[in-house]
Each structure stands twice: as structure tokens, then as C-alpha cells.
Amino acid sequence: MIYYLSQIGDYLHDVFIDQFDWWVVLGLVAQIMFTMRFVVQWIASEKAQRSVIPFAFWTFSLGGGTLLLIYALYRRDPVFIAGQALSTFIYIRNLQFALRERRAQRAVT
User: Fold this and answer.
1) Max CA-CA distance within the chain?
2) pLDDT digits 0-9 by tens, 7-18
3) Which of these, 2, 30, 52, 72, has the minimum number of CB atoms within 10 Å of its CB?
4) Per-domain residue ranges for the chain?
5) What does the alpha-carbon distance between residue 47 and residue 41 come to, in Å, rounded to a whole number?
6) Which UniProt keywords apply (predicted)?
């Protein structure tokens, strides 16, 4: 048991201490931004008492997704790159729809 705990400790030290650099900081910031999209969606839905996707959801999605794509490109991870590249395109398109809807609502009022 002590051997396995030591191995886990060595692994965590390698991952979180030895490999720590500015790219890891970028990746962590990107992940926090990406996570914030769910927080703002949850808060908006709780307030409305129904499922709501606020504009900030797509903003955090694009910001976090783009930073994660940059991080994945640096790390040369083909699975991560493919997923984030497609997602980033989808976030841009949804932001276009959201902006179009906002403009239309402002024109009516």
C-alpha cells in the first residue's frame, strides 16, 4: 500500500510540479473559463426556473475553447485538437446567432 501511495505521490509531483510552466498556466486558465460557462448557465437557469443558455455561456465557450485549442496545439494532442477545433467553430456560429437575436430584439424595443 505504501508503495502505491508513493507512486501516486511521485506521479502527482511530476504532473503538477515538475512539468509546471506557462503553458500549464494557460491550460488551467482555459479550463477555468470553459467551466465558467456551465456556472453561468446553471445560475441563469435557476433564476428562470427553466433551462436557459445565456449569451455569456457562448462567450465563455469561445474564450475557453480557443485557449484550450491553443494549448492542445502546443501539446500536439490530435484528439484534443480535433475536438476543440470543431467546438470552436460551433461556438462562433452560436455567438453569431445570439448576436443576431440580440440585434433583432433591440430593433423591436
Assistant:
1) 68
2) 999 998 988 888
3) 2
4) 21-108
5) 10
6) Membrane, Transmembrane, Transmembrane helix
